[in-house]
Write a structure and sequence with these properties.
Elements (H helix, E strand, L loop, with lengths): L5 H27 L6 H18 L1 H10 L1 H21 L5 H13 L1 H12 L9 H21 L1 H10 L4 H4 L16 H18 L7 H13 L6 H13 L4 H19 L5 H21 L4 H8 L7 H6 L16 H9 L1 H22 L4 H16 L7 H15 L15
Helix pairs in contact: 1-6, 1-7, 2-5, 4-5, 4-18, 5-20, 6-20, 7-8, 7-10, 7-11, 10-11, 10-12, 11-13, 17-18, 18-19, 19-20
Length: about 425
């Protein structure tokens, strides 16, 4: 009797596990684009893959672009007007970012969807979809963040191979209280994505309590990168407490969060100081809603609202970026875009966001979870910052949007929340 069939094991690795493993890594790089090489490397690599894919899968590619002809038209218009705006300004301000966003968020998803649908999904449970891989990719990103926090040696090693400016920016600080992760855009959409999928992990507690581990890991990543990631968690917690979840589930959740949060961070230096920054989020949020004085929130909705006073600048913009200016600076995405290219340009962005949200609604109805996730996220993130500046958040949100719309067949993905949610 054979207890060890080496051929069967290697066959399983080749046919099932290795493709999943490489697709897992591929998705991580596609979404987060770790800053260990110049960003243009990822753009060039993605374009090369797309070119080979387009030549070999012409019919599939055309069916994809036909499916998203309105989104493509608005995307191309944004790229064209941004290049025209920069041409008149004589300087590249945002046109490069809009071009990269367009390619990575609307064009390149065609081959990601194809690889998953044709080579990965057939080997999975029929109820599973792309979200399953994304869920664990995000969890892996959160785990890397946790390791960087707990093990300073790992953090110092990563500092030597990365090319971002986060480490340099925080060198003058007594301690670094944020920007932990192997990704770009750590203090904006990276932290929000971790919070979005922490909310999903919270929802999945009804399937298995083991998801509390992923939830705790992702929550740590939110706390030490971008506190806006707490918003999806708060909304999910409110949903869970009002829509029939068992009280013992919530009680178990509260105990596990406390224990895991304490033991995961007890090894970190300056724990008291590190915890101060994320906890201040809730203090500022309460202050904003009770007295209008909420630190970051009040700054975002008061000091950062800068509207051009000249009528021509209001229509066509100033062709400049307000971000990081010593005087008259703003972080608000819509304000940055308004001052850059004018009100008509901002209108096109709002039309794109609205079109995508409405299309999800008419395709799936209100029962499909992604309609709420996508609609809230794109409008919220472009308020908090510049979502379309080729960020991980934009890549993932539009990847899943394109996936659900393109693969939708009546009777499949019909809007019911399945086991992946």
């Amino acid at each position: 009797m054979k207890f060890f069939n080496f051929s069967k094991i290697t066959s399983s690795l080749d046919n099932i596990y290795l493709p999943r493993f490489f697709f897992f890594l591929f998705l991580y790089v596609y979404i987060f684009q770790p800053p260990v090489v110049n960003k243009l490397f990822f753009v060039a690599l993605g374009f090369i893959i797309f070119a080979f894919f387009f030549v070999s899968k012409v019919n599939y590619s055309f069916s994809y672009f036909k499916k998203f002809k309105f989104e493509m038209t608005i995307g191309i218009s944004l790229v064209f007007f941004s290049f025209l705006r920069d041409l008149f300004s004589g300087d590249i301000v945002y046109s490069d970012r809009f071009l990269i966003w367009f390619l990575q968020s609307l064009v390149f998803p065609v081959y990601v969807i194809y690889i998953f649908e044709r080579h990965i999904k057939p080997k999975l449970n029929p109820s599973r979809d792309l979200l399953d891989f994304v869920y664990y990719v995000i969890a892996f990103a959160g785990l890397l963040t946790l390791l960087l926090i707990i093990f300073p040696a790992f953090d110092r090693y990563y500092e030597t191979i990365q090319i971002d400016d986060y480490y340099e920016r925080y060198k003058s600080f007594e301690f670094r209280y944020r920007a932990y992760g192997i990704s770009e855009n750590l203090t904006f959409t990276y932290g929000y994505l971790l919070g979005l999928f922490a909310a999903l992990a919270l929802y999945k507690l009804k399937e298995s309590y083991l998801h509390i581990v992923i939830f705790a890991i992702l929550l740590v990543g939110v706390a030490f990168n971008a506190r806006i990631g707490f918003f999806p968690v708060i909304f999910m917690f409110i949903y869970m407490t009002t829509v029939g979840f068992r009280l013992q589930t919530l009680f178990f959740f509260a105990i596990c969060v406390f224990i895991l949060f304490f033991f995961m961070l007890r090894a970190a230096d300056n724990l008291e100081e590190l915890l101060y920054w994320p906890l201040m989020f809730f203090y500022e949020l309460i202050g904003f809603f009770t007295s209008g004085d909420g630190g970051t929130a009040s700054t975002l909705f008061n000091d950062f609202i800068i509207v051009p006073k000249d009528i021509w600048e209001l229509i066509f913009g100033k062709g400049i970026s307000l971000f990081g200016l010593e005087s008259g600076s703003s972080d608000v995405g819509y304000i940055l875009q308004l001052n850059y290219a004018g009100i008509f340009f901002v209108f096109m962005i709002v039309v794109l966001f609205t079109l995508c949200s409405v299309r999800l609604y008419f395709t799936f109805g209100l029962k499909h979870w992604y309609f709420f996730f996508f609609s809230f996220s794109i409008f919220f993130l472009n308020t908090k910052g510049f979502l379309l500046a080729a960020t991980p958040g934009a890549r993932l949100l539009f990847l899943l949007y394109c996936y659900y719309i393109f693969t939708h067949v009546r009777g499949r993905n019909n809007g019911q929340v399945n086991s992946t949610c």
